TrEMBL record:
SUPFAM superfamilies referenced in this protein's UniProt entry, alphabetically: SNF-like
Subcellular location: Membrane
Pfam families named among the record's database cross-references: SNF (PF00209)
Keyword Transmembrane: yes
Topological type in the membrane: Multi-pass membrane protein
Domain of life: Bacteria
Keywords: Membrane, Symport, Transmembrane, Transmembrane helix, Transport
PROSITE patterns, per the entry: NA_NEUROTRAN_SYMP_1, NA_NEUROTRAN_SYMP_3
Species of origin: Lutispora saccharofermentans
Name of the protein: Transporter
């Protein structure tokens, strides 16, 4: 057990890996990656996304691990610890706390849809699908989704249930909970998505679905598409807002920061790709619209399982596991403000959890559902749901990531960076560290800046 200042920490390198992966894998892979790929034209978007993960995401992730483990504090305190003489850097931490709220406002609502699908699947609401024609089945799933997301009361109730579950886990003592849940369930989720894939690949639309995913058409690469890919890379890997700083602060001294980031990025990307492979064949088999947006997951997965043995049971299992993946990701999202309030504002952990969840619930309920008080308010052409997503993923996270890469690459004490990266063993990771430092200093910040400059008129809103 790794302790400093009596803080709790993850118990082993394996636990570190699974907890970090538990933060990364969530609705981002199963819900957001497929629908953004659908909206942004497929293969070319994925290619840019992969470049963003490697050249921007991984270096920022390693920087966050470094900052967190070196300081062993919450995001704001840890960043301050790297350059106590320049308080301006603390603003990255504040931005992170803000981003965490913005993301949770809509993320907890989508998690609510997932929880409610567990119950729909258990009740057998999708049971009749197998006897319907292709068009009828597609219409029935679309109606189900419309009723789930558009209800006057139930989506708000589900959002509240999600937040109660998240708060209860956070109050009940964290690390053990997070460790145990992620270690057992991540592999099961992986296996289940592979079953979905096998089924999807035997559908008549499989060829078209795969070609949508893997055919790279460079004419699709416009500024908004590139900005969306960058934003997704940050969102996916939980970067740019202090989550990985906070988790890094719980890492063991033996954890290898570079290889952990590579393993997390590869596994996370694999889950997203597998999710895409199970969804797009369905889209083309059932004549659905690939660019339909946030309903995509919910309009396709029930169809995947509609005509296979034990399909009903597998559908329940799929949404249970997606719900769990969303929940472990939310634990890490909420941990940013909670650790900040407890360590910097001296509020008890329980009060911090309650305060954070109450704010998310009140604002979330009032804004992100079509039937909410502000559900139809449009600001700069966007609903609150879209606005929260855009501001966090496409602005705050990449901007936070840019500053984090500058802080670690140009303003931190280089010898302590090298020490953290080699775990105090000068022979460890020698060449890799050189390569990493080069990318971190010169490539990562410049690429983020280029994407930002290219997108100025989109970001102005
Ligand atoms: N990475 C999570 C997902 O893909 C979301 C997340 C974003 C979690 C930022 C923490 C911080 O679902």
């Amino acid at each position: 057990m790794d302790r400093k200042q009596n803080r709790e920490g993850f118990s082993s390198t394996l636990a570190v890996f699974f907890a970090t992966l538990g933060s990364a894998v969530g609705l981002g892979n199963i819900w957001k990656f497929p629908y953004l790929t659908g909206q942004n034209g497929g293969g070319a978007f994925i290619l840019v996304y992969l470049l963003c993960v490697t050249l921007i995401g991984m270096p920022v992730m390693i920087s966050e691990f470094f900052i967190g483990r070196k300081a062993r504090k919450n995001a704001v305190g840890a960043i301050h610890g790297i350059r106590p003489d320049q308080p301006i850097w603390k603003s990255i931490g504040y931005m992170g706390v803000a981003a965490s709220f913005f993301i949770m406002f809509f993320y907890s609502a989508v998690a609510g849809w997932v929880y409610s699908y567990v119950f729909k699947a258990i009740k057998g609401d999708f049971g009749g699908l197998s006897s319907l024609s292709v068009e009828e089945a597609a219409k029935m799933t679309a109606d189900q989704f419309g009723a789930t997301a558009g209800g006057a009361f139930s989506p708000m109730l589900w959002q509240a249930i999600v937040l109660i579950v998240v708060s209860a886990i956070l109050v009940a003592g964290v690390k053990n909970g997070i460790e145990r849940i992620t270690k057992t369930l991540m592999p099961v989720l992986f296996a289940l998505i592979i079953i979905c894939d096998i089924r999807a690949l035997t559908l008549p639309g499989a060829r078209e679905g795969l070609s949508f995913l893997f055919h790279v058409d460079f004419t699709k690469l416009t500024a908004p598409v590139i900005l969306a890919a960058l934003g997704l890379a940050f969102f996916k890997l939980s970067l740019g807002m202090g989550t990985m700083i906070t988790y890094g602060s719980y890492f063991t001294n033996e954890t290898n920061l570079i290889s952990t980031s590579a393993k997390v990025a590869i596994s996370d990307t694999a889950v997203s790709m597998l999710a895409g492979i199970s969804i797009f064949p369905v889209v083309f088999t059932f004549g659905l619209e690939p660019g339909q947006g946030p309903g995509l997951l919910f309009n396709t997965i029930p169809l995947v399982f509609s005509k296979i043995p034990f399909g009903g049971l597998l559908l329940v299992a799929f949404f249970v596991l997606t719900g769990i993946a969303a929940t472990t990701a939310m634990l890490s999202l909420v941990e940013v403000p909670v650790a900040y309030f407890t360590e910097e504002k001296n509020i008890s952990r329980n009060k911090a959890v309650l305060l954070t969840s109450a704010i998310i619930l009140l604002i979330g309920i009032a804004t992100v559902h079509p039937m909410s008080v502000f559900g139809n308010t449009v600001i700069a052409g966007k609903s609150f749901f879209d606005l929260f997503d855009f501001i966090s993923s496409n602005v705050l996270l990449p901007f936070g990531g840019l500053l984090i890469s500058l802080l670690a690459g140009h303003f931190a004490d280089i010898s302590s960076l090298r020490r953290e990266l080699s775990n105090n063993d000068r022979l460890n990771n020698g060449n890799l560290i050189g390569l990493f430092l080069f990318i971190l200093k010169y490539i990562t910040p410049i690429l983020v800046l280029i994407v930002f400059l290219n997108s100025i008129d989109i970001i102005k809103l």
